[in-house]
Every structure is written in C-alpha cells, then in structure tokens.
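Teaching assistant here, posting this on the class forum so everyone can see the example we discussed in section. The complex has two components, and the goal was to see what a joint structure prediction looks like when all of them are supplied at once.
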Amino acid sequence: DIQMTQSPSSLSASVGDRVIITCQASQDIRDCVNWYQQKAGKAPILLISDASELEIGVPSRFSGTGSGTHFTFTINGLQPEDIATYYCQHYDHLPQYTFGQGTKLEI
Amino acid sequence: QVQLVQSGPEVKKPGASVRVSCKAPGFTFNNDYIHWVRQAPGQGLDWMAFIDPTGGSAKYAASLRGRVTITSDTSTDTLYLEISRLTSEDTAVYYCALGVTAILIWGQGTLVTVSS
C-alpha cells in the first residue's frame, strides 16, 4: 500500500505569513493528491484536487503543486480563519484512498 | 446542493455491533461513490471503505476487512455502515462522504462510543 507522509505535524505562524505543508508518497502517484481543511468539530472541506486544482469558492491564497512523490500545499498570506488541520489524501485506481497524518495550523 | 444526513450518536459495549446510516434526501446516486471515513478523538482521518450504490460493489481498508460491511438501499437512497466486534479503538466520529477521486461532500458525522 502507498503511504503518505505529511509534515510538519503542527505549525505555528502569524497572520500574513506564507505557510507550506508537504506530503511525500512512498511511490510515484502522478498527480493523484487532494488537500482538505478541517476546522475543529467540523467535517473536512476539499480545497484542492488533482494536486493543483483549486475548488470553486476556495480563496486564491491556497495553492497546491507537485507530481510523482512530492507534493506541496501553500497558504500565501495566512488569515485568522485559516486555523485548522490540513490533510493530504491520495487516491488510486483500485480504488484505494489514503490520508496523510494531518498538519495542525495555529496562529 | 446535496446533503448527507447521518444517524445519531451511539453508545455500545465492547463486542457489540453498530449500524450507522447515511441518507441524501432528494438525491439519487449515479456514478458516485459513498465513502466511510472515521476520526478517533484527537486523531487524523482514516479512510474505511467505499461503495458504489448503483452497482453495489464495495471495497474496504485492509485493516477493517471482515469486521465492516457497507450496504446501500437504492429504494430509499440510504447507505449503511455496520461494524462488528467493537472495541474501544472503534470509538470515533464516523463520516459518510460522497465523491470519486476526491471527496466532495461530507455528512455531519456520527459519534460512536464503545465503552463498558
């Protein structure tokens, strides 16, 4: 099974900062990675699909890049409402779905 | 927009079974997958299984195979997750969610507590 190693597990930043979260896949997974935001006590929300496609209605300060085994999620200009835990997620053709361990973002 | 409405919280004893339901009022599943994802207290997201409601095919995470069954009732557009031989490690919020390559819509979650 493919493993998704997400880092860091927690992160403290200030309003206006650039925040970068990474996910490393244990093997080549092309661009089959999604990114989710989960606020405390709420269900997750899909932010980015297929490594870099921003979902409709998601602010443009969120972005994703990567292909193969290394993926990056970036918040440019952190806002107070971005306090949440962020997860990467891989899907494959089997289909099989795997989440990263999550990154808890604090301000 | 589609909403997934889940059944209410459950408290079960170790060794028992639990069934959680998920319904999409007014929505007919077509070429969609319904997933079950759980989240233990303070922990991350753990994908459990998915079902193709129209075709009936299902796939389970290896760690849960044999203890988890997901079914669909297309006449009522209701999905079910059943977990048998519960242990305290099954205490979690259980989400049903809709999507194929990405999970687009999530239910509100159902808390299952396993305690003696």
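For the discussion questions: The radius of gyration of chain A is 13 Å. The mean pLDDT of chain A is 94. Think about how each of these relates to the inputs above.
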